């Protein structure tokens, strides 16, 4: 929780510094802030939802992306060394928020048809609804929030455990092992360092995937067939 609080404050400070004095000719800090925000606005919100709906849901998607990224990256920051998203509470909260927004978008778009069209897809023979409807219910209303939470949690948890394994092995070989076995410490350290760099990519990728899937679910809820 302390890591989450620290990173939330860091995010607020960074965005405040980047936007407190907006100029027509941007400063370096403003340019970096605008580039980061445009990545979410253009590549996720507007690409999937269009300009109108993208603008509606942009605050949610923007907050989600940068919060997940900040919490993920703490897994490789010295003296923190654990991702704020590698404990199940945070992924569950985000998955619930994503699910609620999916339901809200669908019900507001088509109050009378959202659940009907979700559970009874058009063009399916009536007899097949005995099989199709339970599958659609499980995949749409049960599995989506579960898979969202587990995907984020497990990626960050497994990454954390691998880093612990590599560097614990390095400490053992360098300081506790005897003779030639100390050389294994060089190999485990090299693997740990390489995986640390890989974890930076994973941290950004998981933030992108979670936010992208949330936008996809909202887009499906706003689709004309609903």
Using the CA coordinates, give the radius of gyration: 22 Å
The number of E-state strands comes to 0
**Could you tell me how far the N terminus lies from the C terminus, measured between alpha carbons in angstroms?**
40 Å
Provide the low-confidence segments as ranges.
none
Let me know the average pLDDT. Answer: 90
- Largest β-sheet summary: none
Order of helices and strands: HHHHHH
Proportion of residues in extended strands: under 5%
Share of residues in helices: over 70%
**What would you call the shape?**
flat
How many helical stretches? Answer: 6
Q: Could you say which structural class the secondary elements and strand pairing correspond to?
A: mainly alpha
Could you explain the architecture of this structure?
Helix content is 78%, strand content 0%. It is mostly helical and 226 residues long. The model has no long low-confidence stretch (mean pLDDT 90). The radius of gyration is 22 Å and the shape is flat. It has 6 helices and no strands. The protein has helices at 2-19, 28-73, 89-109, 114-119, 129-175, 183-221.
Strands, helices and their partners?
Layout: H1 2-19, H2 28-73, H3 89-109, H4 114-119, H5 129-175, H6 183-221
Helix pairs in contact: 1-2, 2-6, 3-5, 3-6, 5-6
Which key terms come to mind for this protein?
226 residues; mainly alpha; 0% strand; flat; membrane
Summarize the structure.
By secondary structure, the protein is an all-alpha fold. Helices cover 78% and strands 0% of the residues.
